[in-house]
């Protein structure tokens, strides 16, 4: 018999500026919640409308010891790194970057988009790497929207885009270093879904738009508020109210390892952080050819 998890608590996303000055809504890390093992950060970029020439991004910056997952909903970003990778993320695309031992990365508005202006809306999730994988070779998984598996319920009232994990009988195409689920559900008014979640996973929902009802208690919660579920069941219940609901369901198996972070470096010890800084300053993570 399936048991739906209850809600442990909720956390409102905090509006702040990141990178070159672009607006993000951040449920963690904040003073209310530093991390959600195995996740280190969730930023909702925008939604914000830019006039021609106004769009901002994140110029050259290093990473070591974790993964960044960028999911574009609107707008487009051009990315480059010190290993020579480059490309453009467009609406619906996902980039799963495993920084590992270290890479210098930039994420800036695509030049054509920057010239014309428009709306930017997307998500960036930081996924911690276990100690054994902290210093692996950097890797990219570029997943255009059309290659990301989707599924719907038989009545068509619930649709899911499966970025990681499995939902409605469909498995993700992206490979993860540890067990993770990352799913984008769209529910029509009045629709409901009971999504299985392995008991070992910590899991939360992040509503993008619409007021939904969550958990075994079906508590009504609005957008841009992180809904943290307890570990008291093997499924999560998501329901739409009188309007469509767009919500992310994200979870993973905790690493239960020490976390020492210094800006874009996340390691297990202070010595490893000091070494990351030395390596970056010495140019060992390379530089981006612009």
TrEMBL record:
Binds 1 Fe cation per subunit. Fe cation binds at residues 61, 63, 105, 107. Transmembrane segments: none annotated. The keyword Calcium does not apply. The keyword Magnesium does not apply. Residues 24-127 form the Pirin N-terminal domain. One of its GO terms (molecular function) is metal ion binding. Its cofactor is Fe cation. Residues 182-286 form the Pirin C-terminal domain. Keywords: Iron, Metal-binding. PANTHER family: CUPIN-DOMAIN CONTAINING PROTEIN (PTHR13903:SF31), PIRIN-RELATED (PTHR13903). Belongs to the pirin family. This is Pirin family protein. It comes from Trinickia dabaoshanensis. The lineage of its organism: Bacteria, Pseudomonadati, Pseudomonadota, Betaproteobacteria, Burkholderiales.
């Amino acid at each position: 018999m399936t048991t739906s998890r209850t809600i442990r608590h909720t956390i409102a996303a905090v509006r702040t500026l990141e990178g070159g000055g672009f607006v993000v809504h951040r449920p963690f890390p904040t003073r209310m919640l530093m991390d959600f093992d195995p996740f280190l950060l969730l930023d909702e970029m925008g939604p914000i409308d830019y006039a021609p020439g106004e769009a901002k991004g994140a110029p050259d910056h290093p990473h070591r010891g974790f993964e960044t997952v960028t999911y574009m909903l609107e707008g487009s970003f051009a990315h480059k790194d010190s290993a020579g990778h480059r490309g453009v993320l467009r609406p619906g695309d996902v980039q799963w970057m495993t920084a590992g031992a270290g890479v210098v990365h930039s994420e800036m508005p695509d030049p054509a988009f920057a010239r014309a202006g428009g709306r930017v809306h997307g998500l960036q999730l930081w996924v911690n790497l276990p100690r054994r994988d902290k210093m692996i070779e950097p890797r990219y998984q570029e997943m255009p929207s059309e290659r990301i598996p989707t599924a719907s319920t038989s009545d068509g009232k619930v649709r899911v885009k499966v970025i990681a994990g499995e939902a409605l009988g469909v498995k993700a195409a992206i490979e993860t270093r540890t067990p993770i689920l990352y799913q984008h559900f769209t529910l029509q008014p009045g629709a409901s879904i009971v999504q299985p979640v392995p008991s070992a996973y910590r899991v939360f929902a992040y509503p993008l738009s619409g007021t939904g009802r969550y958990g075994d208690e079906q508590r009504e919660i609005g957008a841009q508020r992180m809904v943290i579920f307890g570990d008291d069941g093997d499924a999560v219940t998501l329901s739409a109210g009188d309007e469509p609901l767009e919500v992310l369901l994200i979870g993973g198996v905790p690493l239960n390892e020490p976390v020492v972070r210094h800006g874009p470096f996340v390691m297990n010890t202070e010595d490893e952080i000091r070494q990351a800084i030395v390596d970056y300053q010495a140019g060992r993570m390379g530089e981006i050819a612009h």
